[in-house]
């Protein structure tokens, strides 16, 4: 498996992997491929990585895009969506994509990253729940952050408008 930056010609394959990865997931709205495409069209994919295999082509994808905290456009980013083809899940592909993405954010001098997801999974990367950082005005143990440099912010986080894609 190799991890590389998304290329222009990867859009359709990324959409297919993302659709397959989220198909039937109870937490999915089914809009994940449209969110990625809307972020791409808006030029808001700060980091967009794919995992490839020689046999299967693109087998995973992760996106990182800017977020605002209290409407401030600080150097904070949101992780997601992250997807791995169903037949390739539980092989460390998602973990590799996330680790590389966080390293790329750090290289861009990002202050931190937020994610909404399973604390047991994202805790492996250093994400923690913080009641001072909210999403939709409410704290949640599923909403987590990792500080890459500087102080831990407080306030309400808002994602790019592409996350409202329907």
Give a description of the structure.
The chain is an alpha+beta fold. It has a single domain (2-164), classed as 3-Layer(aba) Sandwich (Aminopeptidase), CATH 3.40.630.30. The protein has four helices and nine strands. Strands 1, 2, 3, 4, 5, 6, 7, 8 and 9 form a nine-stranded mixed β-sheet that branches. A hairpin with a 3-residue loop joins strand 2 and strand 3 (57-69). Helix 1 (11-22) runs antiparallel to helix 2. It is globular and about 45 Å long. The chain starts with a strand and ends in a 7-residue tail after the last strand. The mean pLDDT is 93.
What's the helix and strand layout?
Blueprint (H helix, E strand, L loop, with lengths): L1 E4 L5 H12 L9 H10 L5 E7 L3 E13 L6 E9 L8 H15 L4 E5 L2 H4 L5 E2 L3 E3 L7 E5 L7 E5 L7
Parallel strand pairs: 4-5, 7-9
Antiparallel strand pairs: 1-2, 2-3, 3-4, 3-9, 5-8, 6-8
Helix count, per DSSP?
4
What is the domain total for the residues?
A: 1
Largest sheet: 9 strands, mixed
Reported CATH architecture? 3-Layer(aba) Sandwich
Helix amount, in percent? 10-25%
Keywords:
4 helices, nine-stranded mixed β-sheet, alpha+beta, globular, 166 residues, 9 strands
Short summary of the structure?
This protein is α+β, with helices and mostly antiparallel strands and 166 residues long.
């Amino acid at each position: 498996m190799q991890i590389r930056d998304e290329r222009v010609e990867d859009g359709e394959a990324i959409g297919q992997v993302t659709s397959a990865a989220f198909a039937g997931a109870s937490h999915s709205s089914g809009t994940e491929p449209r969110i990625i495409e809307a972020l791409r069209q808006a030029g808001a994919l700060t980091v967009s990585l794919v995992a490839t295999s020689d046999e299967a082509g693109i087998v995973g994808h992760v996106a990182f895009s800017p977020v605002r905290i209290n409407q401030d456009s600080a150097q904070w980013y949101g992780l997601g969506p992250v997807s791995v083809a169903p037949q390739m899940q539980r092989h460390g592909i998602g973990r590799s994509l996330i680790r590389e993405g966080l390293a790329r954010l750090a290289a861009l001098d990002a202050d931190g990253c937020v994610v909404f997801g399973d604390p047991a999974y994202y805790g492996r990367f250093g994400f923690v729940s913080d009641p001072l950082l909210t999403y939709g005005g409410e704290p949640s143990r599923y909403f987590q952050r990792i500080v890459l440099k500087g102080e831990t912010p407080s306030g309400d986080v808002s994602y790019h408008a592409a996350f409202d894609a329907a």
